[in-house]
Design brief:
With 312 residues, this protein is mainly α. The chain has helices at residues 7-28, 35-56, 60-68, 70-95, 99-107, 109-121, 127-147, 152-171, 177-201, 217-243, 246-252, 255-266, 274-300. The protein has 13 helices and no strands. The longest helix is centred in the C-terminal third of the chain and has 27 residues, at 217-243. The radius of gyration is 20 Å and the shape is globular.
């Protein structure tokens, strides 16, 4: 607890989450591309960026070792499947004016990780964790009642990202961040390219097209930049995580949803009725309870704190 924090670790880790928190601003500039095209383009360009980085960093041997390990490959195939769902719903949320719902999803992700640990890893809930989960459930009911509909965007984002974190935890020591993302995007590439081809044949693709408002070289470069942002933020996160205690990395993960929430209220002007404020307030209380409990538990058993998922 008395070990000085690494200033470079804080800079790397915080930068990753700040980039992730500002990502909705980039997504809004990608119109008229729809969520399907943006997600497919992000997958393809992330693979291109990762391949270049692996070449520069002499990482192809690590890549080959991962591909030869059947269990690891299956785990990364599963994580690729859930993260593409997360990407698609996230882009859809931003495009349809539900940034606050996306923010809520990432706020409750640590609580989802606790629940997944109980279900799949046989972990036992401490009293404070039960209280935090109970408060979060009440918050979801309050927000859902205020919206007049099931808050599916928030729950799908939290659930998919939670599953992604759980799957990556199974291969965490065997696969570094860059290699893992490379394998995941490589597995997604055939589906992404096939989807882009189908959209192109149907006249629905925007990349490389001209003659309509919003299309052009700038639009194409912005689509390419989604791959740069994805790989870049992941490397920043990995660099920060190596230099920081786990509990600090866990606290940093709240930067992104807080920035997204602020953007939803100020920049995007999303409606925030009292029920939504009440729901978010309950979620924040639940996170305080969870964080304090994790802090106390860490003093007794360091591995008790849940590893936050990588920002992607």
């Amino acid at each position: 607890m008395n070990t000085p924090l690494s200033s470079s670790g804080l800079a790397f880790g915080a930068s990753a989450y700040v980039i992730w928190g500002l990502f909705p601003l980039l997504l809004t500039e990608l119109a008229p591309a729809n969520a399907l095209e943006v997600t497919a383009q992000r997958s393809v360009w992330s693979l291109v960026v990762c391949a270049l980085l692996l070449t520069v960093m002499n990482g192809w041997q690590r890549m080959a070792a991962v591909v030869r390990n059947r269990r690891t490959l299956l785990m990364l195939g599963a994580s690729a499947s859930v993260i593409v769902i997360n990407w698609l719903v996230y882009v859809f949320a931003v495009e349809t004016g539900h940034v606050s719902s996306a923010s809520l999803g990432y706020y409750i992700n640590p609580l989802v990780l606790v629940a997944l640990g109980v279900v799949f890893l046989g972990e036992r809930l401490r009293r404070a964790q039960v209280v935090a989960l109970g408060i979060a459930l009440v918050a979801i009911v309050v927000i859902g009642a205020g919206l007049g509909e099931f808050p599916w965007i928030s729950l799908v984002l939290a659930g998919s990202f939670g599953c992604y974190g759980l799957l990556k935890k199974q291969v965490g020591r065997d696969v570094d961040a860059l290699t893992g993302l490379t394998v995941e995007t490589l597995l997604l590439a055939p589906v992404a390219l096939a989807g882009l081809a189908l959209m192109s044949n149907a006249g629905g693709i925007t990349f490389g097209q001209r003659g309509e408002p919003g299309l052009g070289l700038t639009h194409d470069l912005l689509l390419v930049s989604t791959g740069i942002v994805t790989a870049g933020s992941l490397l920043l996160f990995a660099a920060g995580a190596r230099r920081l205690p786990l509990f600090v990395t866990g606290l940093l993960q709240y930067i992104a949803p807080t920035m997204m929430f602020a953007l939803a209220v100020t920049y995007f002007g999303e409606p925030m009725p009292w029920t939504r404020w009440a729901g978010f307030s309950l979620v924040w209380v639940a996170l305080v309870v969870l964080t304090v409990d994790g802090w106390r538990s860490r003093a007794r058993k360091p591995q008790a704190v849940v590893q936050p998922a990588e920002p992607v």
